[in-house]
Design brief:
The structure holds 2 protein chains of 2 kinds. Chain A is mainly beta. Chain A has one domain: Lipoprotein localisation LolA/LolB/LppX (outer membrane lipoprotein receptor (LolB), chain A). Helix content of chain A is 5%, strand content 47%. Chain A contains 2 helices and 16 strands. Chain A has a 13-stranded antiparallel sheet with strand order 6-5-4-3-2-1-15-14-11-10-9-8-7. By secondary structure, chain B is mostly beta strands. Chain B has a single domain, classed as Porin, CATH 2.40.160. Chain B has no helices and 23 strands. Chain B starts with 16 loop residues before the first strand and ends with a strand. The chains are: A mainly beta, B mainly beta. Chains A and B meet through β2, β13, β16 and α2 of A and β1, β2 and β15 of B. β16 of chain A pairs antiparallel with β1 of chain B.
Chain lengths: 214, 398
């Protein structure tokens, strides 16, 4: 996938990355992100194990030193590769990570939606007090998320586009755009080449696979 | 038991694999110009004042459909002042076979063990390429056969190391060296097999919840030579590197608790003049998103100890270290790291500032400043007390 960072003036910076995810059976998911560009970070990789309860585990591999660094849990609210996405936007999406409240029904972009608020269970490590999510009633796809910072001020808005259905059951967005209202920067994620049931196993998500990721 | 990939992960809306094509051919690397400027005159006769250099590290990578791969990474540097620093090395030239439940890597490769920021105590497989930089982070490629067995109960790695690499040292015209030059052409070995001694290592590592740890045993040629003061055939005092046969047990532990990262490295080595324990412990604490900005501020504290005290072959025999890391998380990936090292038994201290950022998509500028203060005569730092310097690097990545 491709991430385009834009600042206020419209200057662009591009990052290319790939990701693999393994759905957890009892616990959360495992995922591996591999960076292809900018070239100076090529070969860096990020491994995360999300847990339904408790802190997620995260490691970063730095190819120049062949070194695996553990990342402290608190980092999940930090910026992902200088973008307006936080690490926690990429991980930590287990149902158990939040408590939920229905707010209202609303039509969003001609679709009947539920508007739901969710509150992080681990308030200490999340950068948000709450998120407001627009879900369509038909397929439960997320179209828009408002993120409120620790002072409960509107921080960011995520908008999803280009949903397509895979394997006749998985809806996936082709474009995710995050707008930061406070610094007026945007980050756009363009996702191509979705592949499902590729035969990944736990062995594709350990420190060995992190180190040999290219 | 079949594993599926489904909708989860990123934002609950992404969850996916975006895969590269099955077989991969990649050519990448960097070319770099470097300048090192020293604030004070050289201390020793023959030393050039400053130096410039050009370095190149291309990498060719091929991956087959089954995940097995081939990597070739040569490295070369040409230096204007120090002929020892003008050098070529094969950092990697290996084939990785990905089997069912095992991996075998054969050829020249690089392996890093350790968790500490300022000291790399337990790292032992690869020899230090000391002419590159005094931080000992640059390593020479090591010929090896590595068998890796990832299991649910941890990872077992076995290393067979058939050929030893001698440490590089700055030459007579280079700065950041010992008073007497290290005579790398006349290195000596305890083993009659010299550099062909078969070295062995095995490591077990695992993650249990918030804890990562590794423990290893190494038997073979010590990477850190004892430097013997002698006279060369012209009657000039030199230091002869002497490589002993050692046994070393090492441990590295990392524990994460919220904003804290706790780190510990320890080793026990026998075979050199004196058996000893060495250890380094410390923490890293990160303030994420300071004042509602994207700035992360990290504080690092470490303490290193060596039971050999002043006889230690390392600078870090009884030292405290503190660091401040600033990461603004901007598009240019700007980073700052300020480091301070203080010997707790004598007056010596050292300070470093490292900063880097990207320009455009392919250029990276790095700046380092190093200073050495009040170096006590018995401290290894005394040899480089005049060598405060600034290092500027501009690299083009492709």
């Amino acid at each position: 996938m491709r991430m385009i960072l834009r600042n206020k003036k419209g200057d662009e910076s591009i990052r290319e990355l790939r990701t693999k995810t393994l759905e957890g059976k009892e616990d959360g998911d495992k995922s591996l992100l591999i960076f292809d560009s900018p070239k100076d970070v090529q070969g860096s990789a990020f491994l995360s194990f999300t847990h339904k309860k408790g802190d997620d585990d995260q490691w970063l591999y730095l190819p120049a030193l062949k070194r695996v660094k553990r990342i402290s849990t608190r980092n999940q609210s930090g910026s992902f590769m200088g973008s307006e996405f936080a690490y926690e936007d990429f991980t930590s999406q287990e149902i158990e990570k939040y408590t939920y409240q229905w707010i209202r029904d609303e039509v969003y972009q001609e679709k009947e939606c539920f508007v739901v608020e969710r509150y992080p269970v681990n308030k200490k490590y999340s950068g948000y007090t709450r998120q407001v999510v627009w879900l369509d009633k038909e397929e439960y796809r997320e179209w828009k998320i408002d993120y409120y910072d620790r002072k409960d001020k509107l921080l960011k808005t995520l908008m999803a586009e280009g949903y397509e259905k895979y394997l006749d059951k998985h809806w996936r967005a082709g474009k995710l755009k995050m707008v930061n209202h406070q610094n007026e920067k945007t980050s756009e994620l363009l996702i191509t080449n979705y592949a499902f049931q590729t035969g990944l196993t736990d062995e594709d998500f350990n420190q060995n696979s992190l180190k040999r990721a290219k | 038991m079949k594993t599926r990939i489904i909708a989860t992960g990123f934002l609950g809306v992404v969850g996916l694999v975006t895969l590269a094509p099955a077989a991969v051919d990649k050519f990448s690397g960097y070319v770099e110009v470097e300048g090192r400027f020293f604030f004070r005159d050289p201390l020793y006769e023959g030393q050039r004042e400053n130096n410039g250099s050009l370095a190149l590290e291309p990498e060719y990578y091929h991956e087959w459909d089954n995940g097995s791969s081939f990597t070739f990474t040569p490295f070369a540097r040409a230096d204007t002042a120090d002929t020892e620093r003008t050098h070529f090395d094969i950092r990697e030239l290996n084939y990785l076979h990905l089997g069912d439940g095992y991996e075998v890597r054969a050829g020249v490769s690089k392996v890093f063990w350790g968790v500490a920021e300022f000291v790399h105590l337990v790292d032992i497989i690869n020899q230090t390429d000391l002419v590159e930089h005094l931080d000992e982070e640059q390593k020479l490629g090591q010929p090896m056969v590595q068998l890796s067995l990832p299991r649910e109960w941890g990872v077992v790695d076995v290393f067979v190391l058939p050929w030893f690499r001698e440490r590089t040292f700055p030459g007579g015209k280079g700065r950041l060296r010992t008073e007497s030059e290290v005579d790398v052409d006349h290195a000596r070995y305890e083993s009659g097999a010299e550099e062909h001694h078969l070295d062995l290592a095995a490591r077990y590592s695992h993650t249990i919840g918030d804890l990562d740890f590794g423990i290893y045993q190494f038997r073979g040629t010590g990477r850190e030579p004892t430097l013997l003061p002698e006279l060369d055939k012209h009657g000039k005092p030199v230091l002869i590197p002497y490589y002993e046969q050692i046994c070393q047990t090492g441990l590295d532990v990392q524990l994460v608790t919220g904003q804290w990262l706790w780190k510990l490295e320890g080793l026990y080595r026998t075979g050199q003049e004196e058996d000893f324990f060495g250890g380094v412990g410390g923490f890293e604490y990160t303030f994420v998103g300071v004042c509602q900005s994207k700035l992360d501020v990290g504080l690092v504290g470490e303490y290193a100890y060596d039971t050999r005290c002043d006889d230690a072959t390392t600078v870090f025999q009884n030292d405290a270290m503190a660091g401040l890391r600033l990461t603004p998380n901007d598009a240019a990936s700007t980073e700052f790291l300020l480091g301070y090292m203080k010997d707790t038994q004598n007056s010596s201290s050292a300070m470093s500032l490292e900063a880097s950022r990207r320009f455009g998509e392919n250029w990276k500028l790095s700046l380092e400043i190093w200073g050495f203060f009040d170096t006590a005569s018995e401290d290894p730092l005394a040899a480089i007390r005049q060598d405060d310097f600034i290092r500027v690097r501009l690299a083009y990545y492709f």
